[in-house]
Write a structure and sequence with these properties.
- The complex is a heterodimer of chains A (227) and B (400).
- Chain A is of the alpha/beta class.
- Chain A has a six-stranded mixed beta sheet, sandwiched between helices.
- In chain A, strand 7, helix 6 (174-189) and strand 8 (193-197) form a beta-alpha-beta unit.
- Chain A has seven helices and ten strands.
- Chain A has helices at residues 44-51, 74-84, 100-110, 115-128, 144-156, 174-189, 201-205; strands at residues 2-13, 16-28, 33-37, 59-64, 67-68, 85-89, 162-166, 193-197, 209-214, 217-223.
- Chain B is α+β, with helices and mostly antiparallel strands and 400 residues long.
- Chain B has two domains: 3-53 and 264-398, no CATH class; 84-252, no CATH class.
- In chain B, the strands form three sheets. In chain B, strands 3-4-11-6-8-7 form a six-stranded mixed beta barrel.
- In chain B, a hairpin with a 2-residue loop joins strand 9 and strand 10 (198-199).
- Classes of the chains: A alpha/beta (227), B alpha+beta (400).
- Chains A and B meet through helix 2, strand 6 and helix 3 of A and helix 1, helix 10, helix 11 and helix 13 of B.
- The complex binds adenosine-5'-triphosphate and magnesium ion.
- Magnesium ion is lined by residues 44-45, 166 of chain A.
């Protein structure tokens, strides 16, 4: 459960204030599938970063699973990111010198899980995302779709309750993008909250709830009856 | 993140930046190796000099005319002015002191040696029979002023001179002329080579009376004294000073140098030199430390997006600080170990090239080299690691 109340985030650029988020009120229940759309600079990424605890709002309240996030220390926030949140980025953000398997393993290492258990979890993930053959390949040796699958495997390896995807198909062609979306939607079917930022109306329309943003504000918030 | 995982992860990172890591390790290693080799050289030189000094005698005291300006400094005595002469009588007085095992009066000069149809100039030592044991000289053949022959005109030839004049080792019993006097060869010194700049292979030794007559003097150049034991050295020195003050009408106009004091002086000088050399070598370690800092700063800059990603997947600031810190620890550690091995190898090469030089690096220098490498490497990484930890996650992620 995500509850944002009167969230603002302001950046100062050369003496000028940019209101990236300007009074956001938003409630997202567990297991929802939400898309966020809007023109460039409307604050979509900023909103996602705040939900994902990568960034702190300047004012407002943020509750995640009934915990007031805004009061937590840096270390506590890192722990929540590690355990409850999975990020998927447009540019994958894989570490180039690590193999696919090692990239997927990273969150487990950060959590302090013992080597043997990590091995089992990584093997399962490689299997689930059809990356078994690519386990020891480095990102440079993988296709865009494979890279994003590695990134999604990494984002889900800790079994987070929320997946935040910021234009996950932005660097992929249409068909591969659709496959990646299908993977993410699969996770949602498994009960994970899925929040996707996208420019693609067609992809956005697949979500059960569509939020449109402009100038740091939520303009419309529509839920499908089917959702 | 566990400590083992931090170390393992950073170790993999170090391995994957192969060239970069190799260069840092090499820079570190050369610094440590320089410390090890240079201190091995310095300490080797020190031990070499000490060995040489020890080889000229044991519990040795040297009495010379003239007063040292400052006690303990033998240079003042060497340069001292208008001394009252030391005489054979002085030497005999000292020989009766209870702390003294034996004594040898000494005069030094040069004269022409002829015999067996040969002629050459030689350095002449005039002394008594005890000179040989006091100065740790060894006779290859014969003797010198053996009991009952104290007043004979005997001469001992250095090994090289004996070889030159009497090639087929028939020197003993031969008659030679030194200056205007005739001598009978009573002994030949064993070849010893150069020791403290004094080549005993090219000297001859004659009785002190003959030497004084030959050089037309009643004074002595030195009196060499051997104390009965190491503990007797200092009492012997006091006794010598007191005895000669009395016989010189109450004037303290002689200097007594103990071998210990000379050794201590040289030891101090050479030890200081070793320290200075080690200090200079250590500067290269500081330079290596700056290199580590520079490389780590570049690494933080290069891997900004990676740091952002690590934060996004739940790394804490201290996880990231530790990861970068551990990288520097690995690099410094590898550099220190490699440098130590290189240094030991270099010292071995030195010992092989100069067998006389005991070029062993002192333990303190090896430890100091390794510790300084580790400390500078690690200290140099603190700031870059902190920069990495403090990066703003969102900004870091947006950097490509
Ligand atoms: N670190 C920052 N410093 C200054 N301004 C920023 C920063 N991050 C975002 N902004 C500004 O805040 C506003 C919202 O940015 P945000 O990245 O959230 O937009 P977006 O909707 O994700 O755009 P896009 O579709 O192009 O990704 C923009 O005007 C942007 O310029
Ligand atoms: Mg964006």
């Amino acid at each position: 459960m995500i509850r944002l109340s009167a969230i603002t985030r302001t950046f100062h650029m050369g003496g000028q204030a940019v209101y990236a988020l300007n009074g956001i009120n938003l409630h997202i229940a567990s297991g929802e599938y939400v898309s966020i759309m809007g023109p460039s600079g409307s604050g979509k990424s900023t909103l996602l970063n705040i939900i994902g605890l990568l960034d702190r709002p300047d004012s407002g309240r943020y509750e995640l699973d009934d915990r007031l996030i805004t009061d937590l220390s840096e270390t506590e926030q890192a722990q929540i990111r590690r355990e409850k949140i999975g990020f998927v980025f447009q540019s994958f953000h894989l570490i180039p010198r690590l193999t696919a398997a090692e990239n997927i393993e990273l969150p487990l290492i950060l959590s302090g899980m013992p080597q043997e258990q990590r091995q089992i979890r990584v093997d399962e993930a490689l299997q689930a995302f059809e990356l078994k053959q690519r386990a020891s390949h480095r990102p440079a040796e993988l296709s865009g779709g494979q890279r994003q699958r590695v990134a999604i495997a990494r984002a889900t390896i800790m079994q987070p309750s929320v997946i935040l995807a910021d234009e996950p198909t932005g660097n992929l062609d249409h068909q591969i993008g659709a496959e990646v979306m299908a993977l993410l939607e699969n996770l949602h079917h498994g009960g994970t909250t899925l929040i996707v930022v996208t420019h693609d109306r067609e992809l956005g329309a697949r979500a059960h709830r569509q939020i449109a943003m402009r100038d740091g504000k939520i303009m419309t918030d529509q839920a499908d009856d089917a959702g | 993140m566990t400590l083992a995982d931090t170390l393992q992860t950073s170790f993999k990172t170090v391995l994957s930046y192969r060239i970069r890591s190799l260069l840092i390790v090499l820079a570190m290693a050369l610094g440590v190796a320089a410390v090890v080799v240079l201190t091995a050289l310095g300490d080797g030189a020190r031990n070499y000099v000490i060995n040489q000094f020890s080889s000229i005698g044991t519990n040795l005291l040297v009495v010379l005319p003239g007063r040292a300006e400052t006690s303990g400094s033998f240079l003042g005595a060497v340069l001292g002015q208008t001394p009252r002469d030391l005489t054979l009588k002085d030497a005999q007085l000292l020989g009766r002191l209870p702390q003294v095992r034996r004594y040898a009066p000494l005069n030094v000069g040069a004269a022409e040696l002829s015999g067996a149809n040969r002629l050459r100039e030689v350095t002449v030592l005039g002394s008594n029979a005890d000179l040989i044991p006091i100065r740790h000289m060894k006779l290859a053949q014969g003797g010198f002023l053996a009991h009952g022959t104290e007043r004979n005109a005997q001469i001992v030839l250095g090994a090289k001179i004996a070889d030159e004049f009497f090639p087929r080792s028939q020197a003993i019993g031969q008659r030679v002329r030194l200056g205007d006097s005739r001598f009978m060869v009573s002994g030949v010194l064993a070849a010893q080579g150069e020791s403290m700049g004094f080549n005993t292979d090219e000297i001859v030794i004659i009785p002190i009376d003959y030497a004084q007559a030959m050089f037309n003097t009643t004074s002595l150049f030195r009196i060499l004294i051997e104390a009965k034991s190491h503990n007797d050295i200092e009492p012997a020195k006091q006794a010598i000073l007191a005895t000669l003050k009395q016989s010189h009408d109450g004037e303290e106009d002689i200097t007594v140098i103990t071998q210990d004091a000379i050794l201590a002086t040289f030891d101090r000088i050479l030890h200081t030199m070793t320290l200075a050399v080690a200090g200079i070598a250590a500067i290269s370690l500081i330079v290596a430390g700056i290199l580590v800092m520079n490389v780590m700063l570049v690494a933080v800059n290069q891997r900004t997006a990676e740091i952002g990603l690590l934060k996004a997947i739940g790394a804490t600031s201290s996880d990231i600080r530790r990861l970068f810190f551990a990288e520097a620890v690995w690099l410094s550690f590898a550099g220190a170990i490699l440098g130590f091995l290189l240094g030991q190898f270099g010292s071995l090469m030195l010992r092989l090239a100069y067998p006389q030089l005991p070029a062993w690096a002192p333990v303190w220098a090896s430890i100091a080299g390794i510790v300084v490498a580790l400390v500078t490497g690690i200290a140099a990484s603190l700031w870059p690691a902190n920069q990495a930890a403090r990066l703003d996650a969102v900004k870091a992620l947006s950097k490509r």
